[in-house]
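Following up on my earlier thread - several people asked me to post the actual chain instead of describing it. Fair enough. Here it is, all 184 residues.
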Amino acid sequence: MTLHSARTTLVVGGARSGKSSFAQKLCEDSPHSLFYVATSPVLPDDSEFAARIQKHKDDRGPRWTAIEEEIDISRVIREYDAPHNALLVDCATLWLNNLMYHALPLKEHIEALLEQLRVCQARVVVVSNEVGQGIVPTAPDVRAFRDYQGRLNQRLAETCERVVEVRLGLPVLLKPTNQPKLVL
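Reply from S.P.:
Thanks for posting it. Predicted structure:
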């Protein structure tokens, strides 16, 4: 699988499935200039999470330019939109969390991202978590987040030219597919 075969790619999977590593390698195997769009807020009192972020930075190496943006990722894609660029957005799940935490208009931000993905010339890989395959959460706000995330993933999958699910470190191509159209 190469980055050249699709302009936009959604990489989805569960926690620790290998999705970020796969997405990073997909970008690194290309000749493009590499930009890592980090959506995670830096939490001052969470040393374990800070160590995770540092490990991601160390794993990427000097070829990558890091851009930290918790909210307006459509602006970042627009700003770095050029045919010779590849942007890795990691991840849509934390981005959605940020939007909800700050009580920002979800529909407006999601539509802006989807529109930018439709028109961009750069290669864009979006990483997102599959959060709907577990148990039904008991807390209403957690259920709402799970539901919004599931709908966001569906919209991203519809918009992106390619969708890859990573399970156990193994990529499975979901879109495009050469499977025949099923009818009753």
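The first strand starts at residue 8 and ends at 13. That should answer part of your original question.
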